Amino acid sequence: MSAQLIDGKAVAAAVHERVRTAVAARTAAGRRAPALATVLVGADPASEIYVRNKRLTCEKVGVRSVPMHFAADIGETELLAAVDALNADEDIDGILVQLPLPAHIDAIRVTERIRADKDVDGFHPYNIGRLAQRLPVLRPCTPYGVIELLKSAGETFKGKRAVVVGASNHVGRPMMLELMLAGATATCCHRFTADVAGEVARADIVVAAVGKPRMVQGDWIKPGATVIDIGINRLPDGKLCGDVDFDAARERAAFITPVPGGVGPMTVAMLMQNTLTACVAREGAAAEATRNR
Ligand code: GUN
C-alpha cells in the first residue's frame, strides 16, 4: 500500500479562502478588517522567514498586518510595555510575539502578558485551559490545523486510538487536548515513555511532534493508519525532513502528510482564522458592553 498524501497547501488555501470571504463581507458592510500585530525581536533568520510568511498571508486574506521589529537587546520591560500598548489598542485584534525570544527575556512572562482575547497563538494559559475544559476559544494554531487536516482526510476520531509523540507546551500537549475534544482515545509519548514503538503500533492516528529527524520509523506504523508529521528538521545536506521516516511509513499508512507541504501551511492558516475569530468576539463583547451601559 502507498498512502494517500494529505495536501496541507490545498487545505490551508481553503481556510484562507474562508477567512478572505468573511473579511471581505465585513469590510463590504462598513466594518473594519481584523488586525494582527506581529512582534519580532532580533534577527533570527528562521523567525524572520516565519514572520514574513505570516505578514504576506495577512495581505492575501485581507487581514491588516501591523509589523513591529525590535533589536535583540531590547529590555524585557520595554517589550512588556510594547505588549501593553497593543493590548490597549482597540484597533488591534491579535498579538503574536514570535518565539524564541532572546535568552535575557522571560518568554513565559511575555506570552502571559498578551490579553487572552488577543492571544491568536492560543498559548496563554486561559486559552489552553479553555481547550482543556472542552470550551475552546482561541486554539493553538498547529494542533488546530492538524485537526483540520485530519477532517479533510475523512477522519472521524470517535473510537479511534491516537498517539502524539512529543509533549511540548505549544504543540504536543494541546494536540492531546484537541484529539480528546474530537473524540479520539489519546496517548502521549514523552522522554520517559518505555516503549514508543509499541504505543505507535497500536495507533490509528499518529501525530509526530518531537523535533528529531525520522525518529518515528516506518515499521512502527499500524497498516492503514493516518500519519501526521509536525516536525521540520534541517539535515546536514540542507534538505528538510520530518519526524517520521516518510518513505517507509508511506508503505504502511493509508494517509500521510509530507514535509514540507503538510502541517506547515496550516499553522499560518489557523492564525488567520484565530485573528478573525478574535476580531468578531471582541466586537461582540464591545457591543454587549454598550448595551449594558
Ligand atoms: N515560533 C515558531 N512557531 C511559532 C508560532 O507558531 N508562534 C510563535 N509565536 N512563535 C513561533
Automatic annotation (TrEMBL):
Domain named Tetrahydrofolate dehydrogenase/cyclohydrolase catalytic: residues: 6-121
Pfam family, one: THF_DHG_CYH
Catalysed reaction, written as an equation: (6R)-5,10-methylene-5,6,7,8-tetrahydrofolate + NADP(+) = (6R)-5,10-methenyltetrahydrofolate + NADPH; (6R)-5,10-methenyltetrahydrofolate + H2O = (6R)-10-formyltetrahydrofolate + H(+)
GO cellular component: cytosol
GO molecular function, one term: methenyltetrahydrofolate cyclohydrolase activity
EC nos: 1.5.1.5, 3.5.4.9
Keyword Oxidoreductase carried by entry: yes
Alphabetic keyword roster: Amino-acid biosynthesis, Histidine biosynthesis, Hydrolase, Methionine biosynthesis, Multifunctional enzyme, NADP, One-carbon metabolism, Oxidoreductase, Purine biosynthesis
Residues bound to NADP(+): G166, A167, S168, I232
Source organism, top-level taxon: Bacteria
UniProt GO BP: L-histidine biosynthetic process; methionine biosynthetic process; purine nucleotide biosynthetic process; tetrahydrofolate interconversion
Pathway stated in the Swiss-Prot or TrEMBL entry: One-carbon metabolism; tetrahydrofolate interconversion
PROSITE patterns tied to this protein: THF_DHG_CYH_1 (PS00766), THF_DHG_CYH_2 (PS00767)
Start and end residues of each Tetrahydrofolate dehydrogenase/cyclohydrolase NAD(P)-binding domain: 140-279
InterPro entries per UniProt: Aminoacid_DH-like_N_sf, NAD(P)-bd_dom_sf, THF_DH/CycHdrlase, THF_DH/CycHdrlase_cat_dom, THF_DH/CycHdrlase_CS, THF_DH/CycHdrlase_NAD-bd_dom
Quaternary structure (record): Homodimer.
Similarity-based family: Belongs to the tetrahydrofolate dehydrogenase/cyclohydrolase family.
PANTHER family: C-1-TETRAHYDROFOLATE SYNTHASE, CYTOPLASMIC, C-1-TETRAHYDROFOLATE SYNTHASE, CYTOPLASMIC-RELATED
Function: Catalyzes the oxidation of 5,10-methylenetetrahydrofolate to 5,10-methenyltetrahydrofolate and then the hydrolysis of 5,10-methenyltetrahydrofolate to 10-formyltetrahydrofolate.
HAMAP family, per database record: THF_DHG_CYH
Protein's recorded name: Bifunctional protein FolD
Gene expressing this chain: folD
